[in-house]
Design brief:
By secondary structure, the protein is an alpha+beta fold. The chain has a single domain, classed as Thrombin, subunit H, CATH 2.40.10. It has two helices and six strands, in the order αββββββα. Strand 1 and strand 2 form a beta hairpin. The radius of gyration is 14 Å and the shape is globular. The termini are far apart.
Length: 107
Amino acid sequence: MPPADAAHHVSRLISRQRVLIGVKLRRRGESWFASRVTDISQEGFRLSTFVKLTPGMQVWIMLPGFEGRKATVTWLGYHEAGCTFDVPLHPAILDYIIRVSDPQARG
C-alpha cells in the first residue's frame, strides 16, 4: 500500500488545471510585478517567473479580477516556483480563472 503522501500527491496532480494567465506578484515589502501562472488548483499554483524566490517565502498573488492572496513558495525549478495558497481558492473562483485563461494552454 503506498504511503499517505503518495495519495495526496496523486490527488493534487489530478486537481491541477493547465492555464496561462498573467498575474501580479509581490514579495513582502516590495511592489507588484508581472508574472504568469501555468497551472492552478484550489490549493496552489505553478508560477513562471524570473524573480528570486526561496522555499518558505511568503508572496502575494493578484489573480485577474481579484484582490491579492497570500501564498507560500513550496518548491523552485528553473524560472518556476510552486506555491500553496494560505487559504484555498473557492471552487467558483478556480472555475472563473480557468475560463479566462488562454485556451491554447489548456490543450
